[in-house]
Amino acid sequence: MNQTQWESASKEFRFREELKDLINRWQLFKEKAANGHTRKLYTQVSQIPGEKPLTLVQIKEQLLKQEQLLLEVETQVYNAYLQWLAASGLLAEDVPRNYLSVEREVLIRK
Hints:
Elements: H1 3-35, H2 37-46, H3 53-88
Helix pairs in contact: 1-3, 2-3
């Protein structure tokens, strides 16, 4: 293996590992957001008669921050995926596939 091939393989490996880490992080955040204390708290507080609207707004703000963080990590996953596809030469394939799925289904049929 020459120097260029080694660098290319190393780059592809680095992008693939980064992608795996980001997917794990995204899954963790998604699970945390779905089962989180803040969502339960919002539901409970919203059912209390006479509760101050400011309290609900503050809790909702925390929920939105969690959702924003989840979307930011999701965007990082997509960017890392594209970098990995480009580094591995898969981005230029005639028949694009979803390499994140087990089936690796074709994305666009000609």
